[in-house]
Amino acid sequence: MSFNPVSAAEPIAKLIEELSKLPGIGPKSAQRLTYYLLRAPADQVQALAEAIKAVKEKVVLCSACLNITDSDPCAICKDEERDRTKICVVEEPIDILPLERTKKYNGLYHVLHGVIAPTEGMGPEELKIKELLSRLNDGLVTEVILATNPNLEGEATAMYLQRLIAPLGIRTTRLARGLPYGGDLEYADDVTISRALEERREV
Ligand SMILES: [Zn+2]
């Protein structure tokens, strides 16, 4: 069998094409990554390929709080020690990590999977708000902590939710100022988040 440079290059072209679809990776970086992988040890490339597949096959959304998890319900929802009268509403699954790190919060969470951002075509229907309201129907929850980010979209979303939740007779609170305005929860330090949690206020 003779070496055919065109067909030999096909897998390379395919990988470059797929990698360039990733955020922040242009054709140049895709090319660099592809040639790096070509030279990398086979087991390293295998591990990467398996990790990519596993993320899609094994990670699901918790049917209660919509956090990402590999078992449904997630570890937090399953935990009998957690305070089921409180639900802390966050924008993205990644926002749960800094709140958990403070060890100051022992309630449950609810992940919206976005914020209201009309300029980006994100309306309330795009968020997991219906799911939140149906959780509030069980009569157990007495407080909803609105922990959306302290920026324009986060504030607007918190206000929108407050208006929906108030008629249900459930207390709504917002993390205290002190979180830098325009900053993301994801990047705030533990002390700041702990204080914002402790000093949360009614909305
Ligand atoms: Zn959960």
Explain this structure.
With 203 residues, the protein is an alpha/beta fold. It has two domains: 5-58, RecR Domain 1 (Helicase, Ruva Protein, domain 3), CATH 1.10.8; 68-202, Dna Topoisomerase Vi A Subunit, Chain: A, domain 2 (3-Layer(aba) Sandwich), CATH 3.40.1360.10. Helix content is 43%, strand content 13%. The protein is built from eight helices and seven strands, in the order αααββαβαβαβαβαβ. The strands form two sheets. The protein has a five-stranded mixed sheet, with helices on one face. Strands 1-2 form a two-stranded antiparallel ribbon. A hairpin with a 6-residue loop joins β1 and β2 (68-69). The longest helix has 17 residues, at 42-58. Mean pLDDT is 90; it is low at 1-5. Zinc ion (ZN) is lined by residues 62, 64-65, 67, 73-74, 76-77. Zinc ion binds at residues 62, 64-65, 67, 73-74, 76-77.
What's the quick description here?
The protein is an alpha/beta fold and 203 residues long. The chain has helices spanning 5-20, 27-39, 42-58, 75-78, 96-101, 129-136, 152-165, 190-198; strands at 60-61, 68-69, 83-90, 107-111, 143-146, 171-174, 201-202. The model is unreliable at 1-5 (pLDDT under 50).
Bound molecules: zinc ion
Characterize the quaternary organization of these chains.
single chain
> Do you know the CATH topology of the largest domain?
Dna Topoisomerase Vi A Subunit, Chain: A, domain 2
> Taking strands numbered 1, 2, ... along the chain, how are they ordered across the largest sheet?
4-3-5-6-7
Strand percent estimate: 5-15%
Which CATH top level class of the largest domain fits? Alpha Beta
Q: What value does the Rg take, in angstroms? A: 22 Å
- Assign the structural class, choosing from mainly alpha, mainly beta, alpha/beta, alpha+beta, or little secondary structure: alpha/beta
Number of helices: 8
Largest sheet: number of strands, sense, barrel closure: 5 strands, mixed
Number of strands: 7
Order of helices and strands: HHHEEHEHEHEHEHE
